[in-house]
Amino acid sequence: MNLGESQLSVSNLHTLWYRVSGNTEGKKIILCNGGPGGESKDSHLEVYDLTKVCIIQFDQRGCGKSTPRGELTENSTDTIIQDIESLRRHLEIDTWFVAGSSWGSTLALLYAQAYPQRVKGLLLSSIFLARKQDLEWLETGVTQFFPELVDYRNDLLSQWGCAGQDWTTLANTWIQSDDEEYQRKSLALYSSWEGNFYQLESRMKQVHTEDVDLDQVSGSRIYHHYLSHRFFLSAYSILDKCQALEDIPTVMLHGRYDMICPPEQAYQLHKLLPSSRLEITNFDGHKFSAETRRLQRYLWNSLLL
Question: Which of 106, 117, 115 is nearest to 35 (CA)?
Answer without folding.
Answer: 106
